[in-house]
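Q: Sequence in, structure out?
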Amino acid sequence: MHDSSPGISIFILTLHEETNIEAVLDSVAGFDDIVVLDSLSTDRTVELARSRGARVEQRAFDNWAAHHNWALATIKFRHPWIFYLDADERMTPALEEEIRGIAADPHEERVGFYCGRDNFFLGRLIRRCYPPVPILRFYKPPFVAYERITNVTTRVAGPVGHLANRLLHFSFSKGLTEWIDKHNNYSQGEAIEAVMSRERDTVRVRDLIDSDPVARRAALKRLAWRLPFRPQLKFLWLYVGCRGFLEGWPGYVYCRLQATYEYFIDLKVKEIRLARRGVRM
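A: Exactly. Output:
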């Protein structure tokens, strides 16, 4: 058992996570302030979270940015630093040690840190076609705001860093059906974002080579929304460009799933455009 963390609160989002909540809470058992923001689950998520000592807040989910921003503005975290986890993710001892050291440093000037993820599928770590893209996870809430209705991005008002250690991510922990349902919902938000981007944004070369990885990734997404044959290109990029073929059968299946997700987005973009003209799919 670890000592209480010097100045770190743990923040976890949940919705019907009774199969995951105990494991994620066990992975952060050494922290003395664990807050679960639950989106009105009807299973045992809340009961299990409280049984392990977590504080539970509840709010109906509207969209990802609004949900996160409400939490940062409303929840009274006990410590100046928070580490955010989804229920299908796990803290590791090495990552815990690293963030404790940062929080304990009185001379630390950075206000946020990006963290990579080790992603698992079909019982194995997928390193190539499921790359550990860094996400802002460890930060001081007053300096952070979330944007976009799905697959959120963050604005940080201050210097940032990158953690050397990664968390563990089990995105298929509730099965393939749940993953497909979740990404079907994500694709609706992505389609709305894609339509708005095509109407209001331009793709500039300088944005594609921006030194800020968040800005660069956003520019690449704006470009990707304008490309033809997006599902096929996504598959080729992951399976060939990222060498997903070296991951064997799990890599092939994952690349196919990602291409299907892009196809969902393209279909829903078409649906939105037809609806504006009064035409049904």
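The longest helix spans residues 248-276.
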